[in-house]
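Notes from the 1:1 (GR / supervisor)

We went over the backlog. Supervisor wanted to see one worked example end to end before approving the batch request, so GR pasted a single chain during the call. The sequence is below; no edits were made to it. Supervisor asked that the structure be written out right there so they could see what the output format looks like.
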Amino acid sequence: MLIRSTWTLQVSEPTALPRSYGLELVKQLHQRLGIELGSERVPSTTCSGLLGNAIAAGDFLTFSPDQQYHLSLCGLQETASKAIATLPLDSSITLDFLGASFHILDREDEITSYENLYHTCVASEPDPIKRFDLRFTTPTSFAQNRLHLPLPLPSLMFRSWLERWNHFAPVYLGSDELIEYLATSVPITRHNIQTRSLTVHSGRITGFTGHVSLQILHSTEPLIANVTNLLVEYARFAGTGMKTRLGMGQTKIQSQITEDEK
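Structure output shown during the call:
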């Protein structure tokens, strides 16, 4: 089971939070879900953090009562997904942390499964999609030894998605050889990205946000093109890169173009 639950939130008065609020927010959410932070080698959840128009000043962000904010919480395996799906949320429930209180106005759940994604994207042998336009809505970066690399290199994006898929999914796709093949078959054709930092714990991590287009080369086998589509679809749930549970790496699909549409 996979779920992406998107909540609409609002405060009743101007509310200031430190830029480093992410860890406390995630602790609160996982406490409600009954998931112990740090107990998983590969996190079974991703979280967007609070998205919307907050005013930044110094080390704080101020959230306004005349604005609505959004938070997406994804489950990547059965236990986490069921906990998110059954989490009681209505207008009488608030999300409280660090002295802030966010009213939950609405929620939208997108639910699927690994089996359904694999069947739709690969097993049913659909017409291959040739171009993918991705939007990275929160800072995205990749851990490289002791460094953070804020660049959308295809090899790093595919490795990020594939490692999570292989860890949680019942269908194993492959490892280094597949990543190498994908990285040389699906190049970036255009991008419009900017660097943006996110405060995590007591430090700051620089990531990229913006648009990235990937193009399948004409010589690529249809199966590889469909596996690419599968991993891109999965990225909407799993996120991209590091610290996806703390608000990094949120990934959306802007558009997908088949060979017939080119």
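Supervisor's comment: Residues 2-112 form a domain with the Alpha-Beta Plaits fold (CATH 3.30.70.1890).
Batch request approved.
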